[in-house]
Specification:
Shape: globular
Structural class: mainly alpha
Largest sheet: none
Helix content: over 70%
Number of domains: 1
Strand content: under 5%
CATH superfamily: MFS general substrate transporter like domains
CATH topology: Growth Hormone, Chain: A
Oligomer: single chain
Distance between the termini: 17 Å
CATH class: Mainly Alpha
Number of helices: 17
Length: about 450
């Protein structure tokens, strides 16, 4: 591990700064949108703009890297991400913010592609598992630290946006000054959606629903928290807890899924997430008004608390994140159970597309529920798609028996990973030895 860090410190340093800035920006915008009285639909659309840019960039940027090169593309997109932060504070308008978030998503996928391509080049078959683990650790810890920066200055001020821009600019320095030559870019293929559905119907549908679930958790949870009158400090602590739980729960849940039918683990995780979502509504202090939206009755529903219990609310949301965020890696492992390891990376590319389609629509639909049902519409949205996973999972259990694939094991992965990053998983069977610079 020491050798990996020594040979790639500039890359890891620059990426760490970027991911801290990225985690800070997303939730800062959610909080600021509430302060500016953007309606839920406008906020959800703005958040979806990021995923649209991410999706478009995933198809455009590989060609650009091939033509221009890693360093120029990285510098260009880090600068664009820096610029987009300043656009938000100069033009406080929902339409402009949608365009700025698109620019951010487009820039971030470019940065992820460059970083993961570079990591592939630095790793060899003996070290790539450690490199992937370090990459995931930096991603989740960086996102958590970024949320703590919410306490630096009030979201009403321009200083937080300036800080984001500065962080993106600073991140360029160690990478642009590195002595090592950039790697040769290698294109990756993907399996189309129809073929993926034939390979694993449940894995495909579950990944699609996971996109609808993850996007609101990463973008609208801060909106929910501020709307529920939590302070900025309380909101930042909640978001840090969510990120850390998402990282820490990956290993125990993944280990269990390697021993049992992975479909059952996905179903159980989704059931647990439903339970924690319902409990969050119960202790939020606002659930009592929900039935009146559906029933014209004066019957009192006393099952809901009328006073928020913040400790329990925090606990249930963090536990919800803990059992939910491993779903991305579980779905990927489930599909890999049905194919030879030579196709793992291609399957990952196809599943990224499916996840992205759900993630684009997720914030818009979730914000619609929040507009109709109030803040707890956030959890109602999650419950609906979790139930979809559960229902289809039980159906698939009755259609196909469990088949073990010793070549496929659970690997914790960040949700932003691209097929280039998936190649770092030792299970993929990709030979990195010939391209590694560690031997030079």
């Amino acid at each position: 591990m020491y050798k990996i860090i020594k040979n790639s410190w500039a890359l890891f340093t620059g990426f760490s700064i970027i991911i801290i800035s990225h985690g800070f920006q997303g939730n800062l915008l959610g909080i600021r949108s509430v302060i500016e009285d953007f309606n839920f639909i406008a906020t959800g659309t703005m958040m979806s703009g990021y995923f649209i840019g991410f999706f478009v960039g995933a198809n455009v940027i590989p060609k650009l890297v091939t033509k221009v090169g890693h360093i120029r593309v990285f510098a260009a997109f880090a600068s664009m991400a820096s610029l987009s932060s300043l656009v938000h504070v100069v033009f406080v308008d929902p339409v402009v913010w949608v365009l700025a978030r698109f620019l951010t998503g487009f820039s971030m996928i470019g940065i992820f592609v460059i970083v993961e391509s570079w990591l592939n080049d630095r790793a060899n078959n003996k070290t790539r598992g450690k490199v992937l683990s370090l990459y995931m650790l930096i991603t989740y810890v960086g996102m958590a630290l970024g949320n703590l920066l919410l306490n630096i200055s009030s979201p009403k001020n321009y200083e937080p946006f300036i800080l984001i821009s500065l962080l993106f600019s600073i991140a360029l320095v160690p990478i642009l000054l590195t002595k090592r030559k950039p790697p040769k870019f290698k294109k990756t293929s993907s399996i189309n959606i129809k073929e993926l559905f034939k390979i694993s119907p449940f894995g495909t549908i579950s990944m699609f629903c996971t996109g609808f679930i993850f996007a609101p958790i990463f973008t609208l949870l801060s909106v929910y928290a501020v709307t529920m009158k939590l302070s900025i400090f309380e909101t930042s602590l909640l978001l840090v807890g969510v990120m850390l739980a998402g990282a820490l729960f990956q290993w125990p849940i993944g280990s269990i899924s390697d021993k049992y039918d992975r479909r059952i683990i996905i179903i159980v995780s989704s059931l647990a997430a439903c339970f924690f979502s319902i409990m969050a509504i119960f202790v939020s202090g606002t659930g009592a008004s929900l039935p009146n939206l559906f029933l014209e009755t004066t019957v009192s529903f006393n099952y809901f608390s009328t006073v928020m219990d913040k400790t329990k609310l925090f606990l249930f949301i963090i536990l919800l994140a803990g059992v939910t965020l491993p779903l991305f890696s579980l779905n990927l492992a489930l599909v890999n159970d049905q194919i030879p390891k030579e196709k793992f990376v291609a399957a990952g590319g196809g599943l990224n597309i499916i996840f992205g389609l759900g993630a684009i629509a997720g914030p818009i639909i979730c914000s619609s529920f929040m507009k109709i049902l109030g803040p707890n519409g956030f959890f109602v949205h999650l419950i609906i798609f979790l139930i979809a996973i559960i229902a289809f999972g039980f159906y698939r259990l009755s259609q196909r028996q469990h088949e073990e694939n010793p070549e496929s094991t659970f690997t914790p992965l960040p949700t932003s990973i691209t097929p280039l990053g998936i190649e770092l998983d030792p299970d993929t069977g990709v030979d990195l030895s010939n391209t590694s610079n560690d031997k030079k």
